[in-house]
Amino acid sequence: MSKIAFVFPGQGSQKVGMASEFIGEGAAFRSFADEADSRLGIGMSKLMQEGPQEELTLTYHAQPALLTAGAVIDAALKEAGIRPDFAAGHSLGEYSALVSAGVLTFGDAVKTVHRRGLYMNEAVPAGEGSMAAILGLGAEELKRVTDDVTDEGHPVQAANLNCPGQIVISGSKRGVELACEAAKAAGAKRAIPLDVSGPFHSSLMKPAAQKLQAQLDSVGFAQAEFPVIANVTAEPVQDPEQTKQLLVEQLYSPVRWEESVRQMLDLGVTLFIECGPGGVLSGLIRKIDRSVTVLKVEDTETLNKAVETAKGWS
Question: Which stretches are annotated as coiled coil (predicted)?
Answer without folding.
Answer: none
